[in-house]
Specification:
Pfam families: OAS1_C, ubiquitin. The chain is α+β, with helices and mostly antiparallel strands. The protein has helices at residues 15-23, 27-46, 68-72, 94-112, 116-120, 171-180, 193-201, 205-223, 234-249, 257-269, 287-297, 320-330, 377-388, 457-468; strands spanning 49-50, 58-59, 61-67, 81-88, 124-129, 135-141, 148-156, 275-276, 303-304, 355-361, 364-371, 393-398, 406-407, 423-430, 435-440, 446-451, 475-479, 482-483, 499-505. Helix 9 packs across helix 10 (257-269). The longest helix is centred in the N-terminal third of the chain and has 20 residues, at 27-46.
Length: 506
């Protein structure tokens, strides 16, 4: 039986054959496209761009990078869109790129017509297309078959310099990006195009088959049906698919294609629960990056943070509801059912990564938990109670370096506090009428203590001596600027639950 070219008419068991026969591009076609693209690359490298359109210096092309499907190795059969990022010598910072971006686009537009080789390939200019960032788009034709190819050119600042394209950039690069991005979130993503490309390019062959399958579905059954809708970019679908594979198979290179397709469709139906990010190229170790990423992840979902650019939520501002409706339709088709007409099972995937929480308590060994950041703190406390069997009131708190210690409310989640990475939290068990107070030492670190409001200040100083080793007579405690006297009660100072006291050494 011949294999149909319609995905929805293909049995789930034949999806591997479907990809090989209908989606995998031929070597001849790729060579023909890339031959035409080389003419564009040669034009960019050899055409002199000098002191025009407000640029006060010679503009040299430092590097041309193929990105998108042709760059990352997931092009579909008969793909006719090629994206090129051009690193230019006139950009010395993200701010300069923002200032001169459109001048460079106009300069490329003007110079394009001077290239006789491109004119001979049927050059037709579409113009500047708005996006993040804006790009210059034109069409040329392949030499043998005269098939039209759409070429997109994006000028960019070479922020990573000559570093290895798949290595982690120096944190200073991301610090400068964060400083510049306030008015242009995602507009400088092209500076990290080599990381974006390699993030997909270096994935296993079987995963690339799943990527092709998902992209084919998206182009044929979503974008083609809703050409005017503000739909997510293909890059967002690629990242979602990679996340599904990582979490659903533990990065197994051998998996069932139909299960991957079903899983992606189910994730798309619950787009408003997605919070996806990676720490391959930027991490939470740098305080500037950590603070920024935490704020990004606290925003409204869906969140699919670009693994190469923390300023860019590639899922923001699009009609995911339309994609979800189409995904629901896909799950009803033959490609999502086995030969016995049973629905193909999906992988068990959480809509956000679990994080490691280390529960610290004075006098007890640390307790390690795996927690979903969107679970309520109440559920976290239940896990602690099951492990330790506490009967008193659990008080959980955390402190970010340089910040104040904060109480974790039972009705909130870790995500509400911007906690998406491994973190220690402190457990204090109180028994009525005890309350919790935080004591902040000279180094800025805070500790939680249980006190009876009717007890003397000296009792807290004894706890501090036992835990931190600072003798009682050397301790000076203040609350709201007032020195606390040893034989006065906490209640006499108006100290309430979760107030912070300041500790210094006499």
């Amino acid at each position: 039986m011949a294999l149909t070219s319609e995905l929805y008419g293909t049995a789930a068991s034949r999806l591997d054959s479907f990809v090989a026969q209908w989606l995998q591009p031929s070597r001849e076609w790729k060579d023909e496209v890339l031959e035409a693209v080389r003419t564009v690359e040669q034009f960019l490298r050899e055409e002199p761009f000098q002191r025009e359109h407000g640029l006060d210096q010679e503009v040299r092309v430092l590097k041309v990078v193929k990105v998108g499907s042709f760059g990352n190795g997931t092009a579909l059969r008969s793909s006719t869109e090629v994206e090129l990022v051009v690193f230019l010598s006139c950009f010395h910072s993200f701010q300069e790129e923002a200032k001169h971006h459109h001048a460079v686009l106009r300069l490329i537009w003007k110079k394009l017509w001077h290239c006789h080789d491109l004119v001979a390939l049927g050059l037709e200019v579409i113009g500047v297309v708005q996006g993040a960032p804006d790009a210059f788009v034109f069409t040329i034709q392949t030499m043998k078959t005269a098939e039209p190819i759409t070429v997109t050119i994006v000028p960019a600042y070479r922020a990573m310099g000559h570093s290895i394209p798949n290595s982690q950039p120096h944190p200073v690069v991301y610090e400068s990006l964060i400083e510049a991005c306030n008015s242009y979130p995602g507009n400088f993503s092209a500076s990290f195009c080599e990381l974006q490309r390699n993030f997909v390019k270096h994935q296993p062959t079987k995963l690339k088959s799943l990527l092709r399958l998902v992209k084919h579905w998206y182009l044929q059954y979503v974008k083609a049906k809703c050409p005017r809708a503000m739909l997510p970019p293909l890059y967002a679908l690629e990242l979602l698919t990679i996340y599904a594979w990582e979490m659903g198979t533990q990065e197994d290179k051998n998996f069932r294609l139909e299960e991957g397709l079903t899983t992606v469709m189910e994730l798309l139906q619950e787009y408003d629960l997605l919070c996806i990010y990676w720490t391959k190229y930027y991490t939470f170790q740098n305080p500037v990056i950590e603070d920024f990423v935490r704020k990004q992840l606290k925003r409204e979902r869906p969140i699919i943070l670009d693994p190469a650019d923390p300023t860019h939520n590639v899922a923001k501002g699009y009609r995911w509801d339309i994609v979800a409706q189409r995904a629901n339709q896909c799950l009803k088709q033959d490609c999502c059912y086995d030969d016995k007409e049973n629905p193909i099972p999906s992988w068990n995937i959480k809509r956000a990564r679990d994080i490691q929480v280390t529960v610290e308590q004075w006098g007890y060994p640390d307790l390690i938990l795996r927690v979903n950041p969107y679970e309520s703190i109440k559920k976290v406390k239940e896990k602690i109670r099951q492990s330790r069997g506490y009967m008193g009131l659990q008080r959980l708190s955390f402190q970010i370096p340089g910040g104040e210690r904060q109480l974790l409310s039972s009705r909130s989640s870790l995500a509400d506090f911007g906690i998406f990475s491994n973190i220690p939290i402190y457990l204090l068990e109180t028994v009525s009428p005890e309350i919790q107070v935080f004591v902040k030492n000279p180094g800025g670190e805070s500790h939680a203590y249980a006190i009876d409001p009717n007890s003397f200040i000296l009792s807290l100083k004894q706890q501090i001596q036992d835990r931190q080793g600072l003798l009682r007579k050397q301790q000076l405690l203040k609350f709201q600027g007032q020195v606390l006297q040893d034989w006065s009660a906490f209640g006499s100072y108006g100290i309430e639950d979760s107030d912070t006291l300041i500790l210094s050494k006499k």
